[in-house]
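Quarterly update from the structural biology core.
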Amino acid sequence: MAEKNLVIKLREMTGAGMMDCSKTLDEAGGDLEKAIEILRKKGEIKAAKRSERTTKEGVIAIAKTENKIAVVGVACETDFVARNEDFVKTVSEYAEKLLASDVQSFKTWAEEDVKNLVAKIGENIQLAFAEIIEGSVLGDYIHSNKKLAGVVVMSGGNKELANEIAMQVAAMSPKYLNPEDVAPEDLEKEKDVYREQLKNEGKPENILEKIMEGKLAKFYSEICLNKQEFFKEEGVKIEELVKKSGEDAKIEKFFRFSL
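Predicted structure, tokenized:
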């Protein structure tokens, strides 16, 4: 095993990963200069420098069976790469591989494979996320730019409805499912804002509570999925839409992914 101080020094000099530095030093017999030469030949130093660049673009892909969805997001630097057919195909293959594996095993494999993409494409490429979602009724949606996706897990209902709600999740960015799920700190922060507003507006004391209720209802309608208005049907809340599909229908959880 390579000496820890040498491993740290090699990492500082090259930007390569700690594990790569340790293995390379072992291969070089502890010779720092030789280790740098080995890393250069492997392209690790070049890849490490690229990893400092910002990844603002990317592709999301989904692979699925009846009760299981795998979502993979791979980030890159430019829209040119994100729109490349080979890159899009590679991310789709990643999703299929994740579907047939588990998250930890996939991430371990992907960490190495992404290095090949960096060397091949010449940009900073990063695995942004990899998730497996399971449930009895699943809905999914990927926006046409492949940078935004939503997944919904339901009990009862049907897949068509779940797909519609997944689109709602992607488009409307809810943070919570129900008002009771809102984090206490988020709720208190919002209430403080309203109290200050009402104080500055000089509203009569006897109507403050009523006004506060109205403001909180609007707040919930923006951040809670079940309280949001369905984007395809004005005046209809998501919870009402779900109820229409059957008494046993219920949204269990939702996920939103973006690059």
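The first strand starts at residue 57 and ends at 64.
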